[in-house]
Amino acid sequence: MIYSATPEKLIKEFTGGKVLLFNKPLYWTSFDLVRKIKIILKSRLGVKKIKIGHAGTLDPMATGLMVICTGKETKNIESYQSGEKEYLATVRLGATTPSFDLETDIDKLYPTDHITEELISKKLENLTGEQLQHPPLFSAKSVSGTRAYKHARSGIKFELNPSLVVISSLQLVSFQMPYIEVRIVCSKGTYIRAFARDLGESLSSGAYLTGLIRTRSGIFEIKDALNIEEFERNLILL
């Protein structure tokens, strides 16, 4: 989308409230993206203050759709956040890492000779539905006022309470051992790294996430998202 108007009109549009769809770059935190958008709007439009927030975080090792709200639209973030999510996850079987993704190194190897495409499909069926999911220790959950991942990186022992989530659909997209791709449709608050962990355990093996793309959030889809460079280029002042 091209945003073309006078600075005054664009200021009114963005402070009045807009929903922006972005494809988050790999290695960026969700806050990195929000901060960059704020910098662009402030510098290009000459505003000193503007509200910007996101409707659902993505891990640094993930890419894909992030719903960004500006101005008065930030009041509706919770409603956008509550929508169903869809992901394309790449999972490596036969190994684990402490974070259950690429942030940390492999800590254990497991057998995979017994794993077949048919067995995976059966276990995916068993992992669908409403369930209590234990969040990864390397997560942004708060533990005594500190993010869980900070405790985990420091080697501090702790536990996280399980959360009720719904995984409504799991579809095996690709089977090329030891890697598989799974399309996941799930509720807000579902950790895909925890899903990878649980899948590995259900297969009497191990697993961790090597790639993750969020393709949908509620009614919004990745095909309509911009990257940050496109957004800056399409912000045209008249």
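(the above was protein one; protein two follows)
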Amino acid sequence: MFEPRVALASLSGESDAAWALAGAERAGAAFLGGLALDGPTREAARRMVADRDRTEFLPADPFAFLERELAALDDAGLRAGFNVRATDAEALGRAARICAAHDAVCEVNAHCRQAEMCEAGAGESLLADPDRLADLVAAAAATDAVVSVKVRTEVDGVDLPALAADLERAGADALHVDAMDSEPVVGDVADATDCFVVANNGVRDRETVREYLALGADAVSVGRPSDDPAVLARVADAVADWRGEVGRP
């Protein structure tokens, strides 16, 4: 899906094309976003900004913004992706078509745990509504876009490996797993599907990289310190070393 197998993970309201370009030397992919696409998710994002001083992307036209940001990365030398929040399959399909036109990954956000986004029926709430999540994934996959789903562990009542298998059947190509404090679940997800698995959370150094890759992840992603060249260099070198040791698949 991308080489080197280091991704920059989206940071709400911060991860745009300029951010991706700054880390492109050490990364094989960059997931921009998150971006609210439809009425319910955009209203939730506005509330998050107003009530808790969060930073969010709230352009007047989210689809024009998506197009513009991806176009800026067409010649960047990395695989672009866009993490999007949606409750409406039509809006998600429209975004996926834009992603497909730029050979970018459309990443369905089933990860955001902010109360406003969950109340809107997006983000983490989708993990507890697998049929609706699968329908959204299928709508994105129907456009021939490469589809990732950003998920998290430690959600009460959610069997993430079983859900991962369902999402693969719905058309997901990749699963971007925020391990929280349950790193072994990354291995369980990898065992449950043939999807490309990107492990996220606490990726900073050789030890964290090797832990996730040994569990079966295909790649790792760097979140909060994605703008730190020293961290990216350590992670990229660790991934290259690991893949040299085990042999490239």
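Reviewer note on protein two: The first helix runs from residue 17 to 22.
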